[in-house]
UniProtKB/TrEMBL annotation:
The chain crosses the membrane at residues 6-27, 34-59, 79-109, 143-163, 223-241, 289-322, 328-347, 354-372, 414-433. Keywords: Cell membrane, Membrane, Phosphotransferase system, Sugar transport, Transmembrane, Transmembrane helix, Transport. It is a multi-pass membrane protein. It is found in: Cell membrane. Residues 4-444 form the PTS EIIC type-2 domain. This is PTS galactitol transporter subunit IIC. Its main location: membrane. PROSITE patterns: PTS_EIIC_TYPE_2. Pfam families: EIIC-GAT. It comes from Lentibacillus salinarum.
Length: 444
């Protein structure tokens, strides 16, 4: 257990290249190429995190200024995903999430019940989060472990379903995102897209970055859009001219630099993806293999970033106007791209549709984050998390995700039966799409 905790404490920047290196060797990649792939992915991930930190350090103070300027009265602070991850892995139950998830992935692959080989091991903190929530609610350690296992099944089902849309829109062949904070929004986007297609007027509006640039010329360029959004946020924050211009340049820089870091990540991942695909084709000619990666690979897309930056003031407005909400969005405002990124391929890059869907999603999510606040605060205390002066904390990632509400709700109401019902649905979905759907449907 101590060795596992030491590995987790290394953080994603170190864990990911090590995991990529080991998987590359297992898949038959030469030692030199495996080392180069792991190092390239690690450097790309560091670069990506530096850009996200730039966005966080820019948007955080701006959000704080907006809160002070408009005198928002909300008593629960959103402490952000990094705190949520530390809290989730900081418990005895949470530290077991990685070996449980690795074991389930191996069994599912062995029996052909998933196409996803997940190398994004560090992000299993999301399933540790829900498991710890259910444990805090029921005081049943075994049920917490069972919740982790069932949540793993859910994210592999989502990963398999996501892959075609990811390939079609982002162009990432053999890549999918078993990311428990990002993938659930796909389930909302699919039915909403069908609704949008039937709304007169809305179904004719082209609002992709390409369409916007074609219509507005240089004003539609992603760099210019990022800069303009930074200006808008600076004005809403009440910044002076100097601070507003600095924020504008930083947000413009994020939209330019993030795709370049994603490209570097993909450069390191390509050999792994190719090696894995070749092995699967040789041993299982009728099966595909997807490499499961962090959805950070998608947040650099101009449509994702543009919609996410526009969602910053919208999210703060929702927090104020929604009756009963107590959560003040703060720590996760810069990570809104992770909540909405997998809506974008469903809407084919349409920023307007993404904004409408994200508004609905975040609005519901704020209520979920409010509801779990006492449990999340209890988890933080159990993990000896430094609460500073806060007495009530929550997070948008993963607090505002519908799967969190589902697990916590059914876990509270029905305990083992509720979590077991989710597990049966997820397992049945995996069996259907991997055993029947790709063979022309179930036998009659």
């Amino acid at each position: 257990m101590q060795v596992l905790q030491w590995f987790v404490d290394l953080g994603a920047n170190v864990m990911l290249p090590m995991i990529i290196f080991v998987f590359a060797l297992i898949l038959g990649t030469k030692l030199k190429n495996a080392f180069y792939a792991g190092l390239t992915v690690g450097i790309g991930f560091v670069g990506l995190n530096l850009i996200i930190e730039l966005l966080t350090s820019s948007l955080g103070p701006a959000a704080e200024s907006m809160v002070a300027r408009f005198d928002f009265d909300l008593n629960t602070i959103d402490v952000g995903w990094s705190a949520a991850a530390a809290i989730s892995y900081g418990t005895a139950l949470g530290s077991l999430a990685i070996p449980i998830a690795l074991g389930i992935n191996f069994v599912l692959l062995l029996f052909g019940l998933t196409k996803t080989l997940n190398v994004d091991v560090w992000n299993y903190w999301h399933v540790a989060f829900t498991g710890s929530l259910v444990y805090a609610m029921t005081n049943d350690f075994a049920l917490g472990l069972f919740t982790i296992a069932v949540h793993v099944l859910v994210i592999f089902l989502l990963a398999d379903l996501l892959a075609p849309d990811i390939a079609n829109y982002f162009g990432y062949k053999q890549i999918t995102f078993p990311h428990a904070a990002s993938a659930p929004s796909y389930f909302l986007a699919k039915p909403l897209d069908a609704v949008f297609e039937r709304v007169p007027g809305l179904n004719r509006i082209e609002a992709s970055p390409e369409a916007i640039q074609k219509r507005f010329g240089f004003l539609g360029d992603s760099m210019v859009i990022g800069t303009l959004l930074g200006l808008i946020i600076g004005v809403l924050a009440g910044y002076n001219v100097t601070d507003t211009l600095q924020l504008a340049i930083k947000t413009g820089a994020v939209l330019v630099l993030m795709p370049k870091m994603v490209a570097l990540l993909m450069e390191g991942l390509n050999p792994i993806s190719e090696a894995g695909s070749n092995i699967i084709k040789k041993r299982f000619p009728d099966r595909d293999l997807y490499i499961g990666m962090d959805s950070a690979l998608s947040v650099g897309h101009p449509a994702v970033l543009s919609a996410s930056l526009l969602m910053v003031p919208i999210t703060l407005l929702l927090a104020v106007v929604l009756p009963g909400n107590t959560v003040l969005p703060f720590g996760d405002l810069a990570t809104l791209p992770f909540l909405v990124c997998l809506m974008v391929p469903v809407f084919r890059g349409n920023i307007l549709r993404t904004l409408i869907a994200a508004t609905v999603y975040i609005g519901i999510g704020l209520y979920i984050a409010t509801w779990i606040t006492p449990l999340f605060t209890e988890m933080a205390m159990a993990a000896d998390f430094d609460m500073d002066d806060y007495t009530s904390i929550s997070a948008l990632v993963d607090g505002a995700v519908w799967t969190t509400g589902l697990f916590a709700g059914l876990g509270k109401l029905l305990h083992w039966y509720g979590i077991g019902f989710i597990g049966l649905l997820a397992f049945g979905g995996l069996v259907f799409i991997n055993k029947f759907k790709n063979r022309g449907g179930p036998p009659s």
